[in-house]
Amino acid sequence: MPANLGPEYLAAEERYRQAITNEEKLAALEEMLATIPKHKGTEKMQADIKRRISKLKEEMRVGKKGPHRKELFRIEKEGAGQVIMVGPPNSGKSHLLKTMSKAEPEVAEYPFTTRLPLPGMVQWENVQIQLVDMPPLTPETAQSWMWAILRLSDGLLLVFDLGDDDILDKAEELLRFMEANNLKIKNEGPRTFTEKKALCAANKCDLPGAYDRLELLKEVIGSRMDIVPCSAKTKEGISELCSKMFFDLLGKIRVYTHPPGKKADFSQPFILDKGTTVIDAAREIHKEIAANLKYARVWGKGVFEGQMVPRDHVLHDGDVVVFYT
Ligand SMILES: Nc1nc2c(ncn2[C@@H]2O[C@H](COP(=O)(O)OP(=O)(O)O)[C@@H](O)[C@H]2O)c(=O)[nH]1
Ligand SMILES: [Mg+2]
Predict the structure, then answer these.
(1) What is the pTM of this model?
(2) The TGS domain covers which part of the protein (predicted)?
(3) What CA–CA distance (Å, rounded) separates 77 from 273?
(4) How far is the CA of 91 from the centre of ligand 1 (A)?
């Protein structure tokens, strides 16, 4: 009997072939099992997928416990989110990390100075963002662990050099190279694990002719992502870059809360996803609060001071919410 595999199954199977991490493999296998037509002709295939799932789960279980199987280049996430820098050599990735964090990457005029990923914490207002410096992403230098790191990240920061006359070619080359390696940029709507949000840091805006090249860059890639002109050297645009990383690339907001009758501590925000409702926020902050929530009051955007709001009220950056249980 022919298997008659549908497009959903075939797509999941393709994702399985392209998966790099165990989590990606498992997600794809489970989707294959869910979408495979259930009849006699596919019984062997179903059994085979089930076998692969349990083998992988066992590997992941053992790997987590044992000290030897740790993934070599997994970068432990910290702060509001993990942003990985991607770009051609010499665009100023290491210099940006040095300017924006306390990390001490090597910055040099000659290319290929950076050989390993280096994370640093960027303090912006009252939040921290993890920014990771990487070796350049070119066909000559890319290695499989680099793709894995990009896929596991929360967002990509594409760094280009506004002082470089070849900036357009280099930008297009990088995007093409990423697509050829199954990493697409997608800033709107739901994403699969081969699609990532991206923001562009158009670095070295202090150099002559930078703003003319910026206009050209906007024409070529501006429809696909936001572009922030900045300079690792003069710090121009760095604060806007951080704000866009937090609100747009990571899609986060800051919410403050305090027990009824007390004052809010504005140095201690709760970092939540954009679109979070009052009840979701309560769940993130304390399960017990969520379970017993009677009502909430909000001081902030789109409400009058201390307005009583329903559980599905959507919170905004800077809102203070007080839960009553
Ligand atoms: N004028 C200027 N030079 C920069 C800027 N950022 C980086 N550079 C210089 O560009 C060169 C390459 O920088 P680096 O951070 O090592 O590039 P990477 O290969 O992308 O990590 C170094 O000589 C830096 O000093 C900038 O904003 N303005
Ligand atoms: Mg570098």
Answers:
(1) 0.82
(2) 251-325
(3) 16
(4) 6
